Amino acid sequence: MSTLLKKANVYVSKSQRPGTTEVHAERCRFDEKQSDIVIVDTPSFCTYTDPDGEVVVREWMKSYYPKPCKVARMVYMHNLASNPEDTNLRMSNHLGAFRRAYLPNPSPRTIHVVPTLPVGAKLPKERLRTLTTQLQRHANAEGARLHDTFDGEPETAWNIVQELLNVQGIGKQG
Fold first, then answer.
1. pTM here?
2. Which pLDDT tens digit goes with each residue over 31-49?
């Protein structure tokens, strides 16, 4: 989220706060548009550390969105360098946890899966290709769209959000 908020034509309602132990939401408005969006960063689901992201998000949703949201889109960031054999790291587990936490709201209509690599991670091209292919299969099974691997650049983050805006009908932004 912090990378996206560095984009020149995005204005946020408050300062950004890194970290994912709590839910952080930023309302963004765009030049020459009356529509805005709320970008929500949540704790990770299905991890071996506290806090339990599912519980945190469910409580946050009850507090801030007691009535169903009008439209929901989701960007799921997946670390390709994680252990693909760890069942807690399966995309279906994370998306299932999010759907349960998101109740009574409808599930996101669009899910965008963004592969990531930690800064400085070096994976052989063949391993990266294999992991991306596996992730594509998982995304397909969930009805999600797979993006190119996130490179940490604001423009790449903006391109992902641009697709969400286009789907929502806000249209082309900067």
1. 0.71
2. 666 666 777 888 878 777 7
